[in-house]
Design goal:
With 316 residues, this protein is mainly alpha-helical. The chain has 13 helices and no strands. Helix 7 runs antiparallel to helix 11 and helix 7 runs parallel beside helix 13.
Length: 316
């Protein structure tokens, strides 16, 4: 009978004697990985096309608005920092719908989530790093455009120093509004992505939520016959103007909140203390100021809770 035998090879393995950086280092690594994934770094050129296009589309309105201010006369209606957010909101929503699912769906589909959790990481650490990664990119892009806009407005002013003295409060305002918009466009798509392993499904649903809600609200308001006649105007005067009585009455301003795409824009307008001329914004302005703020907080905090709850359920 042959005796079992074995050999021991010295391959030079050594114990790690360096610093133990723990959870903080793991969180940072996961955040950096999320930023690289969202920007397409470390992958092929096709993965970088969308982030580059976002940057171009986010900067172009700032440059164009600066040129308008520099050539327009003093009597013209000039663009503002609040207008910039209204212009790029569609680009940001499309970007978030397409890129955000990449941060979660791939990890679940490839089964690497539990490998992350073998490290000194909790599920909350993982989600916080992913959310912060996407938030950082979105916030950096939109605030870069605002900085370009502010510099352009300052240089275009006849007295740049006077403009700085009179308008320096625009800086904390566009930073605060940037946080509002970036947080909303980060949490909602990630919350949707937590329900599937397929990026295409998550992207389609997020785009549907953002862009179907707008025509839906418009359709409701159109069918309701909403008009802008003063409420105290006599019915016969309204009829003489050819305007129909609204079917939903005061409910129209509540229906306007269902346009999910404009939810962060309403809060941004409040920060800048500017009026939006869109029909939906005018209706929302009829509500108490606290209502659009609470609606924003409900959708944003609710998305964050749903995201955390889904992953806690998976961990269990």
């Amino acid at each position: 009978m042959r005796e079992p035998s074995g050999e021991v090879f010295d391959l030079g393995y050594q114990h790690y004697n360096g610093p133990r950086e723990g959870r903080a280092r793991a969180r940072k690594a996961l955040w950096m990985n999320g930023v690289r994934t969202a920007l397409g770094l470390g992958r092929g050129s096709r993965a970088k096309i969308l982030p580059v296009m976002l940057f171009i589309f986010a900067m172009a309105p700032a440059v164009i608005m600066t040129l308008i201010v520099s050539v327009a006369g003093s009597g013209e209606t000039l663009p503002t920092h609040a207008d910039y957010y209204r212009v790029i909101s569609i680009v940001l929503l499309l970007f978030s719908a397409i890129i955000a699912p990449e941060l979660l769906c791939s990890d679940k589909r490839e089964g690497v989530l539990f490998l992350y959790l073998v490290r000194p990481l909790t599920i909350t650490d993982y989600l916080a790093a992913r959310v912060l990664a996407f938030f950082s990119i979105t916030f950096a892009f939109i605030c870069t455009g605002q900085v370009i806009l502010f510099i352009g407005f300052t240089l275009a002013a006849s007295e740049p120093l006077n403009y700085l003295r009179d308008s320096w409060l625009d800086i904390p305002r566009f930073l605060a509004a940037g946080v509002v918009i970036a947080l909303f466009t980060s949490l909602l798509p990630l919350a949707v992505s937590s329900f599937t392993t397929r990026r295409a499904y998550a992207t389609a649903f997020v785009i549907g939520v953002f862009f179907i809600s707008a025509p839906l609200v418009t359709g409701i308001l159109t069918e309701s016959g909403t008009n802008t006649a003063p409420p105290d105007e006599l019915p016969e005067q309204r009829e003489s103007l050819g305007e129909s009585e609204p079917l939903v009455g005061d409910a129209a301003k509540w229906y306007a909140l269902l346009d999910i795409r404009q939810v962060p824009t309403h809060v941004s307008d409040l920060i800048f203390d500017e009026e939006n001329e869109s029909q939906v914004a005018k209706l929302v302005n009829e509500l108490p100021t606290v209502i659009p703020i609470l609606w924003y907080l409900l959708l944003t905090a609710g998305s964050g809770f749903v995201l955390w709850w889904r992953y806690r359920e998976m961990r269990a």
